[in-house]
Amino acid sequence: MALSGKLSVEVTLQTPAAKYFNIFITQFHKFQNICERILEAKMHEGDNWHVPHSVKNWTLIVDGKPFKLKEKIEAIDKENKSITYNFFDGDISKNYKVFKVFLQVFEKSDGGASIKFTIEYEKINENVEAPYGFLEFFEKSAKDIDSHLLKA
């Protein structure tokens, strides 16, 4: 059994791609009020939620249980509507040495969009499950954000 792996999920959205991506780079701090699976988000290091290397503390619901971690943005590519995140410390470090999340928003011909989340991970040992619960978390959160933006 391999210790490293990749998992992906793609979600179809009704919101236009530019508007959907924009919330990630301008209103990330509001996700705790938009997504039911985000219990808490706080700035840990830095003073801007939307720039690389600022560190945030998150409490999420993954697999039905509270899950604490730190997150920092590693890269933002506005032209390709993509962001790279590093998740570390807290509960994530109990099972994974490496946990990176790549997201990209794609335009669709019908005016909507899709978002693809790819998780690259390295487990601490072979007894650890692949992070399938995070795929569900990202899928459901993406839909919560889409619903919020459609009402706005």
From TrEMBL:
It comes from the Eukaryota. One of its GO terms (biological process) is abscisic acid-activated signaling pathway. InterPro entries: Bet_v_I/MLP, Bet_v_I_allergen, MLP-like, START-like_dom_sf. GO terms for molecular function: abscisic acid binding; protein phosphatase inhibitor activity; signaling receptor activity. SMART domains: Bet_v_1 (SM01037). Residues 2-152 form the Bet v I/Major latex protein domain. Pfam families: Bet_v_1. Belongs to the MLP family. This is MLP-like protein 34.
